[in-house]
Every structure is written in structure tokens, then in C-alpha cells.
Design goal:
Shape: extended
Largest sheet: 4 strands, antiparallel
CATH topology: Nuclear Transport Factor 2, Chain: A
Number of helices: 6
Number of strands: 4
CATH class: Alpha Beta
Structural class: alpha+beta
Low-confidence stretches: none
Oligomer: single chain
Radius of gyration: 21 Å
CATH superfamily: NTF2-like, domain 1
Strand content: 25-35%
CATH architecture: Roll
């Protein structure tokens, strides 16, 4: 019996951890148009292929973001920079839903951006206030496809 008495606190901590996980999974917030617009914008300026997961079918058919990313990389290389030069890290992101119904939404997005040639570079540039800060203020149109908000209209351009 004394042998098991030492294990009681460990078992209680494990049970508490499992309970907290169940509560956090159940309390996970549902997807919002503002959250989808922010996720799309972050992926777009990081030049991540995952940006296509947040694009509506019509936009995927009309536009190939890989061509946009490739052109930006080639332009950077032609100017003597590395392929990661066009990547940006977003800071102070604010998203306001201007209009929303069950099928569509319009979100106003504003943020500050810094170059992210390396994942840590943008954070250090922000901390020490070095490098140029770019500002973005755009309206993003979203549609609800299969229960997920997807961007169907944006006017973003990669920063030169």
C-alpha cells in the first residue's frame, strides 16, 4: 500500500491534464471570417504553398499563386537578393468584419510587416527597430465553402 501512495500525486496530475485537454478541445473556437483572412494573409506574405487551402475554387481556377511567388523570387534573384527576400512577417494584425452573412463576408485587414529572410530576422528587426516597416490595409472578400471560410477576392501584392 505504501508503494502506491507515492504514485497517487502522479496519477492525479495525469488525470487533471487529460481533463484540461478535453475541456480545451471542446472550447476550441469556431472558424471566423476574420481568422480566415488573417491566416490567408500570413500564408500569402510568407509565400507558403498552404495559401491555396484558404482560396476559394473560383480563385484557384483563375489565379496560380505559385506563379506570383515564382515571379517574386526571380525578381529578387535578378536584383541580387536571396529567394527568401520577398517573404514578410506580419505584426499588429487587426481584422474587422465589415459585412457577413451565411455564405459570404467582407473583412478589413490592417497590419505592419517586416522582411523575413529568416524566421528570426523579422522579430529582431522589430525589436531593434531596424529595416523598413511596410503597412497593409486591404479589404478581403470571403465565401463559406463546405463550412470553411475561404478568400475569394483580395488585392494583395508582394512588396518589392
Amino acid at each position: 500500500m505504501d508503494r502506491f501512495r507515492n504514485l497517487i500525486p502522479l496519477v492525479l496530475v495525469l488525470l487533471l491534464g487529460i481533463l484540461v485537454q478535453v475541456v480545451l478541445v471542446a472550447a476550441q473556437p469556431k472558424e471566423t471570417p476574420a481568422g480566415a483572412a488573417v491566416a490567408f494573409t500570413k500564408a500569402f506574405y510568407k509565400m507558403s504553398p498552404s495559401v491555396t487551402e484558404r482560396m476559394c475554387r473560383d480563385l484557384l481556377e483563375d489565379e496560380d499563386v505559385n506563379d506570383i511567388f515564382y515571379a517574386a523570387v526571380e525578381d529578387a534573384k535578378a536584383r541580387g537578393f536571396s529567394a527568401s527576400y520577398p517573404k514578410m512577417q506580419l505584426f499588429h494584425v487587426e481584422a474587422v468584419v465589415l459585412a457577413e452573412d451565411e455564405a459570404s463576408a467582407q473583412v478589413e485587414l490592417s497590419c505592419s510587416m517586416k522582411r523575413a529572410i529568416h524566421p528570426a530576422f523579422a522579430y529582431f528587426a522589430k525589436m531593434w527597430n531596424i529595416g523598413e516597416t511596410y503597412h497593409l490595409e486591404e479589404e478581403v472578400d470571403l465565401v463559406n465553402e463546405e463550412g470553411q471560410w475561404k478568400v475569394c477576392g483580395y488585392d494583395f501584392a508582394l512588396i518589392d
